[in-house]
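DATA SHEET
Item: assembly model
Revision: 1
Owner: S.N.
Input lines:
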Amino acid sequence: MGAAPAGLDLLVRPERAEASLWRRFGATRQGRLRENLFDRYYRFARSLARRHARRHDLAPDMRDDLEQLACRGLLEAIDRYDPRRGAPFLGFARARILGSMVDGLGTLDERSAQLRFKRRLERERLASLAPAAGAKGSATGQLADLVTELALALMLDIEERAAPNDLAGRPENGFDSLAWRETRALLHQRVEQLPEPERSIVRHHYQHDLLFAQIAAMLGLSKGRVSQLHKAALARLRKSMRSIR
Amino acid sequence: MTPENLCDEAVMQRLLAAAGEDGGQGVAAIDAALADHPLDPRLHFLKGSLLIGLKRFVEAHDALARAVEIAPDFALARFQLGFFELTSGEAEAACETWRPLRALPAEHWLLHFVTGLEHLIADRFAECIAALREGIAANAENPPLNHDMALIVARCEELLAAQPGAEPATEEAEVSATSLLLRATGETRQ
């Protein structure tokens, strides 16, 4: 719940605060509250996906698919859970998440699913970032902006999802590695400074691999609006990264 | 409170006794009484307090809010609803719930408690301590609630002295406070 004042911290009890979140979400269905609940349980969903992958000895490239399916199951569980029935959410969500993974995997071709999903994410990104018809500025300038934003998107894609010690896709020589680390740290900082809901959209799209439609459902926005906000966020990042060079 | 909506004194005493023994059975007994007296705010208030003890927090808020909705002048229920919201991290909602209590007489202990807790929300710890102490001194009706407020005073003092915090009051203490309040303030039947 953000930066609560110290005085309030003396009194707030986590179980009650969580119940309050469920109560208010049930009454309003607000996207911000749904997102808050998603954030609380995202790690749980991810751990179920990883455990499921290990137990069923699935190929490594299926893990992202599983996590994506787990996120979908989590969102469904959040929308359908009724805290007044007394059942704990984790038990309720576990069944939904496992169901989502089992159902989803059954319809996927193991070898191509990951590629299809990645391509879908990338298509969404490109469509979001492409200059609008009648956009101002020269074609060359628009192309330069697009290239920069795509480069930033690629960097976000690697950095927001990678484990801390995962070096895949990163520069190998010392100088480039240092420049990469500095740029990465700066980009991460700039993402955190983005206004809402742009920050949430970038985080959910690149860190949680959520499609625009899923983010839209979570935040109570249209898919088109999420696409616009994604473009605005990348443009903002491009400008702020340029200003510090 | 509207007298014709209230259940018999004997029924209320029986419910309070049941509530003191077993929270779950107490809630069931209150629900049975509510079937006959759905507009008795004391029943909703007592139910909310028991549900807090059972950690059924969403339903607890429903019940406390219903008590205040039926009887907007039920000051004790209004205070407890706001306090519950405060401990749920809803400071703005708590202040909004408490707003009508500003009309209480200046020396009323509930008003001192509200003032103290609003100081606490704003991190004015010294002012919080002073107001809560005034409330504790003025409150002869409900020692358990004084105990809860004294715990907050102690925690504020610790914070001021930059010492580690103490444990908050338990949910059971809030239930006992509610039972005692219902008995002692004569709000079981007006």
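QC remark: The longest helix of chain B spans residues 143-160.
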